[in-house]
Amino acid sequence: MTRLLMIEDDRALAEMVATYLGRAGLTxxxxxxxxxxxxxxxxxGYDAVVLDLMLxxxxxxxxxxxxxxxxDVPILMLTARGEEADxxxxxxxxxxxxxxxxxxxxELLARLRAILxxxxxxxxxxxxxxxxxxxxxxxxxxxxxxxDGAERSLTGHQFDLLCALAESAGRVLSREQLxxxxxxxxxxxxxxxxxxxxSRIRAAIEDDPKRPRRIITLRGxxxxxxxxxxxxx
Length: 233
Hints:
Helix 4 packs parallel to helix 8 and helix 6 (156-167) packs across helix 7 (175-183). 39% of the residues lie in helices and 24% in strands. By secondary structure, it is of the alpha/beta class.
């Protein structure tokens, strides 16, 4: 059974979410503080963490950073509506997705299911299927990215974005098309999360992220994954 951890100081909200997710076959465990939440998250065994950024005993962003430093468990942030800066920082330090409060439990379930699908081995490709672009290799079955044989770290969401781009190498994909392919839904107006994830992907796979050669931005159109990236590709 899928096990989730929710770090949230609003007990009533956590109980409501646990009941709703339970009907969908997901088990939710709850911790009310940053200290207890960190200890639980690092014990392992959870398929995803739902993290509120407003906690009474600590900064939710710092908690996100601490979890990500020691675990690759998917993290979905809960943020106050309008706190775009917190959402961007959270994505930059390794969160996989975010959901503004107040939220519809049905949307939370949909986003969690998307995260869990991305964690399922072989969910997007047959075993052993790889994409190679010179020094860059994407192993879709093992969900690994290598540059010059060295593994590069990406969140699950970032890995799927990279795959979506690589599978359409040489074609321009808009931000809306990318999000639709990865999460099965359109972007909200002015949603900039996709740009943050692309920036993190570039930091992982580009020799010089400020002068990218693998993922090119075409202003007003979207992103282009370059088919021939290295001299030996």
